[in-house]
Design brief:
single chain, alpha/beta, Rossmann fold, 2 domains, seven-stranded mixed β-sheet, two-stranded antiparallel ribbon, 12 helices, 9 strands, 33% helix, globular
Length: 291
């Protein structure tokens, strides 16, 4: 069932829906309810509330909540897990702006609707948004896991993938493999073809990604806001052993913002460590969250 903002006024009186009641538990199944609460991010709920702090999972650039379904479902055996679609991704609102301050405030709104405090896992762009959340809304986070990203500006760009997705001719797309074939012609490697096409919107002949806004804000996405703020909560910077996103030279700036930061690597994993080594990622996350 799809809820529109016009018929959601009853949610103010419906804590079960606002706080992930039975109607909003999706697990690994196809979601039967997507909730838009006055512009709030779309989210998928896994599991029921327990005595442990609930967990918020924040995907990276070009991702979605459903990319994290396997890990979210497994971690929900101990705590409730909420996975969001970030703005301009998936089923969440499409906007003309995409900055980390805005992304952090979006996450704070989701947390406020789920009791006011959550542990957070954020990957890549989602990791930067989660870090900014901790710096702007320190009371909203218990423990933070930042997956393969640092609070620094990067010199590379992901714009080539937007150009590849823009090149897809949807008049020739009836199934997912049709789009994958066109992405291959644009030079996109097979693993990323599969990843990007999870955001296909075939009925509407387009993408669930707001490519225009993401392209416009690519410099903001690759950067990290200048701030003197710090957060003294527990943070694990978990990176792929084969990735070059989190380097020793980033440690000083990282610890200036997060003085209790801990660092760990998953051997043999690259930037997509949660997809490449899901069991190892889960084990590290579970150990840190339960510490």
């Amino acid at each position: 069932m799809f809820e529109t903002p016009q018929i959601l006024s009853h949610l103010k009186q419906s804590p079960a829906l606002l706080n992930g009641g039975a109607e909003n538990r999706f697990g690994l199944a196809k979601p039967c309810l997507r909730v838009y609460q006055f512009g709030m991010l779309n989210f998928l709920t896994h599991g029921s509330a327990t005595d442990k702090t609930p967990l918020l999972i924040v995907h990276g650039l070009y991702g979605s909540a459903r990319n994290w379904g396997v890990i979210a479902k497994r971690l929900s055996d101990e705590r409730q897990v909420i996975a969001v679609d970030m703005r301009n991704h998936g089923q969440s609102p499409k906007t003309s702006s995409h900055t980390y301050i805005e992304l952090a405030d979006d996450l704070a709104e989701v947390i406020a609707a789920h009791g006011g405090k959550m542990d957070v896992i954020g990957h890549s762009m989602g990791g930067k948004a989660a870090m900014m959340l901790a710096l702007r809304h320190p009371e909203a986070i218990g423990r933070l896991i930042v997956a393969d990203i640092a609070p620094v500006s990067y010199s590379h760009s992901q714009i080539k993938f937007i150009e590849a997705m823009r090149s897809v001719d949807f008049s020739h797309v009836e199934r997912r493999p049709d789009a994958e074939a066109q992405l291959a012609e644009a030079g996109v490697e097979p693993a990323l073809q599969s990843f990007f096409t999870q955001s296909l919107d075939i009925p509407n002949k387009g993408w669930k990604l707001n490519l225009e806004t993401l392209a416009k804000h690519m410099p903001d996405i690759m950067a990290f806001p200048k701030t003197g703020a710090s957060w003294d909560g527990p943070v694990l910077f978990l990176s792929g052993g084969e990735s070059d996103y989190v380097l020793r030279e980033h440690r000083e700036q990282t610890q200036a913002h997060f003085p209790k930061a801990r660092f760990a690597k998953i051997p043999g994993a690259g930037h997509w460590l949660h997809a490449e080594k899901p069991r190892e990622f889960e084990a590290n996350a579970r150990a840190f969250l339960n510490a």
